[in-house]
């Protein structure tokens, strides 16, 4: 594979949030539950959503 298909970034980021947030909410009362992967998934999903949106907004600003 020569390049990563960029059209998959946004759906995968949304799925990271959809899967990570309920897992974090389910582990809320359990103090010994490992939350690291869910937190990382939510954080990376958020970044993967915000970066393309910011790039699109920047491109719109530059074209005007």
Structure description:
This protein has 64 residues and is mostly helical. The chain has helices at residues 9-26, 36-63.
Summed up:
This protein is mainly alpha-helical.
Shape: elongated
Question: Mean pLDDT, rounded to whole units?
Answer: 84
Taken in chain order, the helices and strands follow as: HH
Question: What summary fits the major beta sheet?
Answer: none
**Proportion of β residues?**
under 5%
Structural class: mainly alpha
The radius of gyration computed from the alpha-carbon positions, rounded to a whole number of angstroms, is 16 Å
Between the first and last Cα atoms, what is the distance in angstroms?
36 Å
Secondary structure: number of strands: 0
List its traits.
elongated; 2 helices; 0% strand; mainly alpha
SSE arrangement:
Blueprint: H1 9-26, H2 36-63
């Amino acid at each position: 594979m020569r390049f990563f298909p960029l059209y998959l970034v946004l759906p995968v980021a949304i799925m990271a949030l959809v899967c990570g947030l309920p897992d974090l909410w389910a582990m809320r009362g359990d103090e010994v539950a490992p939350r690291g992967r869910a937190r990382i998934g939510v954080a990376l999903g958020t970044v993967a959503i915000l970066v393309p949106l910011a790039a699109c907004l920047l491109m719109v600003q530059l074209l005007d």
